[in-house]
Design brief:
mainly alpha, 0% strand, single chain, 3 helices
Length: 72
Amino acid sequence: MNYADQLDKAQDETQLLIDCALSNRPIYSGESSIYCNACGEPIPQARREAVKGCNLCIDCKVIEDKKGRLNV
């Protein structure tokens, strides 16, 4: 296998991993909460419109995502 073939294979595998990750992401639907379920602060209108069905403010969502990556 030559170098170009190895690069093509690596790119194909990387694309497969990206596609799998995107297919497993949460899909939000429905009405977004006005207040964050974690901290109680208002969720900005722009976020509520961009992420349908969200129930966490941006700060709390970042914390939740970090905890998930660390399996805490």
